[in-house]
Amino acid sequence: MTNLSRRLLPSTAALAAFESVARLGSFSSAADELSLTQGAISRQISGLEEQLGIVLFDRSSRGVALTEPGRSYAKAIGSALSQIRAASLQVMTKRHGDTLNLAMLPTFGTRWLLPRIPRFVAQHPDITLNFATRIGIFDFERDGLDVAIHIGQPNWPGAECTFLMDEMVVPVCSPKFQADHPVQSAEDLMRLPLLHMASRPGGWAHFFETLGVPGAPAQGMRFEQFASVGQACSAGLGVALMPLFLIDAELKSGALVQALPQQVRSPSSYYLVAPITKMDFRPVALFRAWLIDEVGRYSNEPDYA
Fold first, then answer.
1. CA gap 237, 219 in Å, rounded
2. At the top level of CATH, which class does the domain 3-92 belong to?
3. What's this model's pTM, rounded to 2 decimal places?
4. Which of 6, 15, 134, 224 could form a disulfide with 103 if both were Cys (CB 3.0 to 4.6 A apart)?
5. What gap in Å lies between CA 262 and CA 207, rounded to an integer?
6. Which residues of the chain register pLDDT less than 50?
7. Cα four-point dihedral sign 241, 217, 166, 138
8. Domain 97-165+268-300 CATH assignment equals 3.40.190.10
9. Could you state, in order of their start, the residue ranges of all structural domains in the chain?
10. For the segment 115-167, what is each residue's pLDDT rounded down to a tens digit?
11. CATH number 3.30.70.60 given to 167-266
């Protein structure tokens, strides 16, 4: 190997130290993360700068900050190290069969996904599934997750978003509440207690705006999860705006009824999200293909479960 080749291939220890400092913005934090001393981190960074012939960090009494070349290098190195970790994990897990670490939304997971998972297990018995609950955007690598179900927009940094389905919402309430509060139009809903979801702060406003109803919706009880708002709705506390496909069972059983027949498309949609570095990981590719097929069957046959 030539001297130039050696200069172009820094040690993984030096690159890991650099990536950690660049991400955390601190030598001491990087030392804690990598279980090294601050001096060891400093030596790794100094050695890397000497090997590359560039200054990667501006050092001052206030801390460290990436230089312009350092920022460019950090972006490339972070991606490269992520790929190395993914490749290493894939090789290691193949010795014992494949594992897929999946993050799912609480209600989507329990109401729609988990009842269908036995079909995936039957098709791919060699893949072990591990489930975690996550809401919102998170760090896949930090949380040790391979793929996630996401509600929102397809704008997850460093990941590929695969569209699954739109979310159609309907106003629902208990049969007794409907009998006590007859609703003939969307305007009638404005005068009733409305139940709100914390994750959909503009849900009711979007609903009324779509139907051309002026004015702001009334404030009301706010809930963190659809399961809770569904229970409050069943208890007769008001009208809730619920995703139609998540309350199939309640509508069929009569536990809930539609306060109005109108359905409105939510501004958010459901996506399968995976880091770009994991798209070729066998469990991710197989789960993605299976889930797309399941969504297609459900869309064509809503009773398919």
1. 13
2. mainly alpha
3. 0.63
4. 134
5. 10
6. 1, 95-96
7. negative
8. yes
9. 3-92, 97-165+268-300, 167-266
10. 999 999 999 999 999 999 988 888 998 889 999 999 989 999 999 999 999 99
11. no
